[in-house]
Amino acid sequence: MRHSARVLIGLAILASLFSFIKFSHCETKNWATPDQYIHACYSDLPALFGDRGLNNHKWAYAGGEKAIEYPVITGVVMYATSWITPEGRHNTSYYFYINAFLIALLFIFSAVLLAHMKPNFWYLLPIAPAMIASLYINWDMWAIISMMIAIYWFDKEKYKLSALALGISISTKFMPVFLLLPIILILWRKNRIKEIFSYGGIVFSSWLAINLPVALTTPKGWWHFYHLNLSRGADWGSPWYALSLLGVHLTNLNYLTALALCAGLIVATLIFFEFATSPTLAQMSFMVLAIVMIISKVYSPQYVLWLTPLAILGLVNKKSVHAFWVWQSGEIIYHIAIWQHLATVTGAHFGLPDTGYALLTLVRIATTIYLITVIARTAVQNSRTDVAHPHARLMDFLFEASPRYP
C-alpha cells in the first residue's frame, strides 16, 4: 500500500474514532434527556431502536404511524442490524455499536473514493469538524456512499452503472433524486438524448424494484416517510422555522416551499449554462443539493454529511478552500446551536433561546450561500479557458449581438 493511501485511511479511522468519542458520553448516560442535547451527542441509532420496536425485531414498516420514517434500504439496514444485536440489558448500546461500526466503514470507503475523485483536496473530508461532529447521528452514510458512486460512474461515462447506483441511493434516502436535474442537463448539452431516457428508466426501474415489495406488503408503513415529508410544517434548521421564531409567520408553506424550490432549481440551471464547457456532475452536485437543503422545510444536523464530500468535489483551486472553512465554521456553530436549543426545549436550566437559535440558523444558511457562490464562480471562470463553444453560455445566447442582416 502506498504511503499516501496509509495516510488517507489512517486519517479516516482517526476521524471515525474522534466522532465515536464525542457520542460515547451519551452512551454511558443511557441517552438521557436533556443530557444528550447539552453534550451534543444525540443519535437516532439508539433512539429509534426502542421507539420503533426494533428491539423486539418488529418489521421496520409495520405499525403505520410507528413505521420507520426513512426509505426502504435504510429501513432494511435498521431492521437487519436489530437481528444481529445481542439480547439483554445493554442491547441498545450494542445496536449503536454495530451501526456505528458499519457507518465508520462507509465513511472510510467514502474517503478512499473521494481521494480518487478529488486527489488534491481529499484530506479535507477526514478533518472537516462538522463532518466528525455528525457522523453517527443517523444512517445517512448508507445513501451518501451510493450517491458518490453514482457521481463517480457518471463522470466516467458509465451511465448504466451510475443510474443503478443512483436508484439505490434514492431508495436509501430520497434527497439524491434532485441530482437528476444536472444529469439531464449534462446529457442534453452533450446531445445524448437517448441516454437521458435510458438513465431515467434505469433509475426508476431500480427504485421500483426495491420499493414495490414493501409498498405492496406494508403500504401504510411504506407511505409514512413520503406523507411525513409532504405534510410537515416548518421544522428545525429551515429558514421558514427561523423566520417563525423571529415573528414572521408565513402561510401556505407547502406552496411557498414548492415555489422557492422551483426558483432555486432555476438558479442552478442558470449556473449550469454559465459554464463555457459542460461541467461534470461532481461540479454541479453540491450547488444543487445545497440549494435544495436551504429551501427545505427541515435541515437535520446530519445533512452536513451529504454536503461536505460534495463541497470538496466542487472545489476548483486552493483559492476557494477558504470558503469551505467559512462554511464549515457556520455548520459547526449551527451544530452546537441546534442541540443547545433542544436542551432548552426539553427542560434544561440553560441553553439557547429562540431568537439566538433563529439567528444562528440564518448564519449557517448565509455561509452555505457564500460557499455556493464561490464554488460556482471559480468553476465557471475555470471553464472559460475553453473558447471552442462561443454560444455555450445562456447569457451569450440571450444577449450577444448577432451579425447584421444581410
Describe what you observe in this structure.
This protein is mainly alpha-helical. The chain has one domain. It is 68% helix and 0% strand. The protein is built from 19 helices and no strands. The N and C termini lie far apart (67 Å).
Q: Count the beta strands.
A: 0
Q: How many helices in DSSP terms?
A: 19
Low-confidence stretches: 387-392, 394-406
Element pattern in H and E: HHHHHHHHHHHHHHHHHHH
Rg over alpha carbons: 22 Å
What kind of sheet is the major sheet? none
Distance between the termini: 67 Å
Percentage of residues in DSSP E strands: under 5%
- Mean of all residue-level pLDDT scores: 91
What overall form do the CA principal axes indicate? Answer: globular
Counting structural domains, the number is: 1
Helicity level, as a percent range?
A: 55-70%
Structural class: mainly alpha
Question: Characteristics of this structure?
Answer:
406 residues; mainly alpha; 19 helices; 0% strand
